[in-house]
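Quick note —
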Amino acid sequence: MEDAQKFGRWNWIDYNFTSPAHDGRRESQKVVPETITVGTKLNVNERSRLASALTRESVEEAASRQETLTLIQPADVTFSWKRKSDSELDDERRKHADLVRQISMFDSPAAPLEPCPFAFSFRWKSMFGKTHSHTCDDWETATAFSRRRDRLGEVDALKSLKDTYEQDYLRKGMRFALGTHSRRDQQWLLVGVLRVDEQTQQELPL
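Predicted structure written out below.
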């Protein structure tokens, strides 16, 4: 991807895509990388309004709207981790290497990614008090751990992530991005964790 095509979490982007033949979910898109055009970045107020419009009270509400990707605001979260086994890490390395070989056929060569040594998960409560547990498949969480480990060491990096999610994110406005499995539409997966920087009515500009 060219430098001009790189974008942040809150950038608007335009792109062309193809849809899989046997997956009707709107978010199931294969992006054509060379068509990506990066637009403006949303400010804090715009992010808050957009997140509020996309937030549902539950996955049941999202399903009733025929949605397969939604945002949910948790009332309480507990972040935890488990060290992966050697066989799990070897399997991830093989998958990464296969993916890199496929990409390198059409683009500049890339180095395989070293998998995160931990599997992360969230136990959380909805605004109605219902408890849920999800494995975290958000790649940004693994990236955040890697960067903090380089700076703080492994133990303190894990503690830092726990504080970030359980305190900072929850206080400033947290959203879980949940999406259905391609073959099991009743199974909702945790695919992203957002900090919205929610604005109160008093903070909104007149």
